[in-house]
Amino acid sequence: MVVKNQIKLIKSLQQKKCRIQQGLFVVEGVKVVQELLASAYKVYKVYSADSSVFDAVEGSEVVSQRELKQMSGLKNPNIVIGVFYIPQPKKVDFKDWVVVLDDVRDPGNLGTIIRLCDWFGIGQLVCSHNTVDCYNPKVLQATMGSITRVNLVYTAIGDFLGKSNVPVYGAFMDGHSVYRTKLPETGILVLGNEANGISKQVEALVTARVAIPQFGNQTTESLNVATATAILLSELRRG
Amino acid sequence: MVVKNQIKLIKSLQQKKCRIQQGLFVVEGVKVVQELLASAYKVYKVYSADSSVFDAVEGSEVVSQRELKQMSGLKNPNIVIGVFYIPQPKKVDFKDWVVVLDDVRDPGNLGTIIRLCDWFGIGQLVCSHNTVDCYNPKVLQATMGSITRVNLVYTAIGDFLGKSNVPVYGAFMDGHSVYRTKLPETGILVLGNEANGISKQVEALVTARVAIPQFGNQTTESLNVATATAILLSELRRG
What we know:
Two copies of one chain form a homodimer. The first copy, chain A, is α/β, with parallel strands linked by helices.
């Protein structure tokens, strides 16, 4: 049986403030818990409603479906909840491309972008302080475990870009066609907020503006930020 | 005041079965209603909680916020609900690329794919009968009005592909790198279901298997279908 305080603690990790206070985050589902256990992430505790799953993991506990439901952030909880320590981010290295996000707010978008970075072997993802927290459960749900393979750093991106010595590419509607841009081996790629794009302060630090050309009707909206990231990372890598 | 039967009718359009019965669908939000009004879609009725919006539209009605809430499928309804007739799909033409979806189930994915087709000027989107309904309110929410510029056809895609005379490209994990594939001017591009990919029956009709190469860690999951579509449509168009 799980003590009430413990249930309260796990449940509280749905909120960013509590995650920071506790230095812990929570993930749900067998597969993603397995991926985190197999990674450098340090486990705090695994709760499983099925004794045959994770019984060999140190610090794992078999719980009732009712207890799991009390801890879960999902309407229909999975059979496993894992609680892990939030790691210290590593120093950003510039040996390869670095992706920078300027206030991406939607958890699904951030999750998809992390997954894309992983797919395309981009190991460094730098986020502005107003970008949605990567340990938000909805972000983790969308990453499918990719978060274990990408170094995520939250920082004041203005300062970060100001101190960098590599070219800074920014995605803009009115930029130069990415298809006709010769991209270097390393650099920084900046993507902006869903509604407002890249902020004025960050725009001033961009050294090259790129765009994904539109082939359809010109009345169309912009591309979604995760979709644009997919195409731009593909362009970085396709050679 | 809106009569009760009318409220019941609008509310019922959240369900596919009722949409088919009535030949109507519903969208919410000023911008998307405007886009549909400006298109070839035939309007049935527009309900607005703000008399200054859409008062000039024939068949528009000012309603109370309470009535709007009763008709809406959203937790926090917008100020405008538009009801439109489901159009007859046009015959698919093969002058340009045609995208085919084999049982894409997630409304957000279909919405994003419709928006991508619009961005890249792909006018023909053919869906298997088990693909999520494009008049599902969540799909419409994700398309941002792009649905007015893409011809969507639901059909038995096995028969459709069997009768087509153009090359059929399918997206597979183990396909030939799309970056090293010479793509023709016209053809069909098939994308599969989120969990199972392209079905065996459809796979047999594919004439060329393409893949988006993975650059990161080989343990990663596949790309999300909307993300894969973004990259593949970009490859079709970039030249």
